[in-house]
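debug: dumping io for the single-chain case to check the tokenizer round-trip. Nothing else runs in this session.
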Amino acid sequence: MIMKNPITTLSYNTFTPNVTHEENLSIAQHLESGGVLFLPNLAFTLQPTETRFLSTDWSDGKSKNIYLRGNERTLRGAIGNEAEQDEIKLMIERYASGANQLVSRLFPAYMPYAAPANTTLRCFEAAGRKSSWRKDDRRLHPDAFPSKPTHGERILRVFTNINAEHKPRTWKVGEPFADMASKFLPKTPPYRAWQAQLLNKLGVTKTLRGEYDHIMLHLHDQVKADLDYQKNAPQLTVDFPAGSTWIVYSDQVLHAVLAGRCMMEQTFHVPQDKLYSPQTSPLKQLEKLLGRTLKV
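debug: decoded output
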């Protein structure tokens, strides 16, 4: 089905662009309304000695990614001697710094409240990867995580294609969040506080899951499980070329990763009250569809 193109292209070619206040507002409005910001000229430059890390040979085989976790900043998922792992960590930290500078320039109102989460190096090919349907990121979905309730915080992600073979990262982008939610909300089971308390007590969730996260997780699962929706829902295929960067709220933008390898990613958690337009968030859209306030 044909859908409105959600992608806006920005010409910035540095992680520290000069952005006017009017541009800040316009860019934020597009992003927070479920759009994708595409920066085709913004590359992350590797040092000559770092190119060797664009290989799955550095994976420990236990994780599909190499990453630094949140504030902990311990390197995970990688093998190599101490010096090699230190070099991988420095490369990933340099990307984290660039992504943080970019977000602070594009969305100054988010700072210092946007909390950096994982910084990730993804070198495995997305096409053909085997997984369960629930973990299959080749299916359209909004991000939601079983063990990590967001409590209404937004999931902001900066991606950069660093493929040395100049191959694109291929995505599908789906219909607006509210259109999807209106289809699947009637099928979502009711929230039970006792179930959330039990899951938290058993350690299934890191914090107590509220009704908002309950709904978001079920929307994620229902969308992925519905093969007719996956095939026939409005969607757009997009190639993000090597040497380009793109930014999305992945809890709002329906997305699927079809192909590509060697990508950097930085995740931020943004509080609801620091958004430029909180009314466009998934939380507020769900409350509007349900006609009531949701507990986060």
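debug: round-trip ok. The chain is about 30% helix and 20% strand.
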